[in-house]
Amino acid sequence: MNRSDRNILILGLLVIVLLVVGYYFLLLSPLLNTLDARAQERSDKETQLANLQQEVAQLEAIKRNAAETERHCWSSPRGSQASPRSPRSWSRSRRWPRPPA
Questions:
Q1: Contacts for 89 with CB less than 8 Å, ≥ 6 apart
Q2: Residues 22-29: contacts with CB within 8 Å, 24+ apart?
Q3: Separation of CA 66 from chain center
C-alpha cells in the first residue's frame, strides 16, 4: 500500500466519521430532545390521570354512601328539625327584616 492509497483511506474514514457526527448533532440530537419532552409530557399526563382516577373513586364512594347518609340525616332528631328542607326550621332560622315605617 503506497502513500496515496493510505491518504485516500484516511480521508474516507474521516469523511465517514464526520458524517456520523453530523448525523448525530443535526438529526438525532433534536429527535432525542423531542422524545424526552414527549416522555415528560406523558409522565405528567399519567400523574394527572392517577389523581383523577383517585378523585373519581372517592366521588363514587360518596355516591354509594349518599342514600345511607341522607337516611341518617333525616332519621336523627336534630336532622329533622334543622334540615333546610324542613319548613319548621325556616321560621326560626330566617328572620326577614321589617319594612321601614
A1: 81, 82, 83
A2: none
A3: 27
Terminal CA-CA length for the chain: 121
Instruction: Give 16-26 pLDDT, tens digit per residue.
Output: 999 999 998 88
Name the grid cell of 8.
485516500
Which residue's entry shows cell 422524545? 35
C-alpha cell at 51: 389523581
Cell numbers 469523511 correspond to: 15
pLDDT digits (tens, 9 = 90+) for 41-52: 999 999 999 999
